[in-house]
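All the exercises in this workshop are built on plain-text protein records. An example says more than a description, so a record of this kind follows:
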Amino acid sequence: MALLRETSAGYMTNLAGRLFLRELERQLAPIGLTPAHMPVLLALEKGEALTQKTLAERARVEQPTMAATLNRMERDGLVERRVNPWDGRSMLVQLTPLAREKLPSVERAATALNTLVLDQLLPDERVQYFALLRKVISVLEAQEEKAPWP
């Protein structure tokens, strides 16, 4: 059985995702950020402070990956940690003023990338594209619930 890349949902989705990330990386570089910062920025942009565990869950990454990301962001002055007043064993993470200053530029970069791609689709195609993505994500989330990652 021969799998064709052009008809492999996994391959094509992965390729699109990698190309999105590469372009996002190019757009964020002048701001001094990387795509790895995006889940943290999006989770904390409203001003709330969250635990590393919550951030890892929202970003759907392992705790060590989130810890490394937060360490780099703290080193770069983008996040600060403080003791969780409700649970002294954990820390709360929040954006620094420096990170907050960058948020409008991050939003412009993400909007420009989405516009670049979505402008190639007709309005009905955009609606269908997001509906199909939600459907694929839903199937994969249900699969993950059945057999969670170890």
